Amino acid sequence: MTDWTDPDTFAQALEEVETKEKGNCFEDFEEGDVIEHDPGLTLTRWGNEQWMGQTLNHDPAYWRTDAAEDRGFDEPPIHPDYLTAATLGITVEDLSEKGGYFLGRTDVRFPESPVYAGTELHVESEVVNCATSSSRPEYGIVSWRTRGTDAETGDVLCSYERTNMIPRRDPVATDGSGTAAAEDEDEPDLPEEFIAPEGGYYEDFVAALEQADDENAAVAYRHERGRTQDDVTVASLPLATLNTAKQHHNVDVMSDSPSGNIVTYGDVTRSTALGHARSDEQTWREVGFDDESFHTFVAVGDTVYAFTRVIEAEDDASSDEAGTVTFEHIAFNQDDEPVYSGTRTAEIRKRSN
């Protein structure tokens, strides 16, 4: 009788049996395909508060009933960062569990109406583009348009377009022509002065931008807080959003990767940096995000900091209590290396009202 637990026998069995693989390869995607992601996820108060607490997003309107009512909410709503992460997390098993580089995300949008705990999130994605990679023949490039909707009403709660490199089942032949020659780097063209707003209200950003217009200056500053990545942020948070990517929880597989260890879910990195930024402003409502990129991995033990540049301000918003400000946020690590960047549009509370 075969002893399947005999080390030699078991090792041979492991080598010979078929592996039931998870996830899809580049060849499995075709432009125009619509993928309904199953299961969905019920957005909970606990999940929302866990995400906000671990990423240092402490806006009281998302925690306290009185602060929520002051903002015009019936109760503390679901934070847009948790909503975005949950929407993407649900898609990972079907779209990117095989691995590959997260190249970017853009056109992230939310409704003006708040989303509350108890909402059942249904997510679907449409393949909008498939392309080969001349520089990495073992990968293809896929873009999806993803929508997270209220399963009961069908209302869109979060939408975006993201692009990933996806492993090919069969690498394509290449002549190497996609490799660009290195160019001489120019000296950085930075303004002579950097201006930080005196406060976090809309008027403070307007005043800083007006001052910068009168000088060769930019409104840009860094945030003091940092958040060192630990087991909770790296493994627990993505798993709570149904993100099955092995990069975040399988140390064995990742031991041979460039990072040598599991790495942080991009939306955790992003949300942590945004939490630092929001702690220095009076956020009223998130409008959307564009041109998001993830520049290098963040691993356990790395610390995430944030830098902000204010691009413009407009006296127009969904409420008279606020104005609209556009920011560029850059997350960076303890070695001052950028790890995330993106453009954010948010409504910022006015001081005068």
TrEMBL record:
One of its GO terms (molecular function) is lyase activity. InterPro entries: HotDog_dom_sf, MC_hydratase, MC_hydratase_acr, MCH/BMMD. Residues 167-193 are annotated as: Disordered. Pfam families: MC_hydratase. It comes from the Archaea. Residues 182-192 have a biased composition (Acidic residues). This is MaoC family dehydratase. It comes from Natrinema longum.
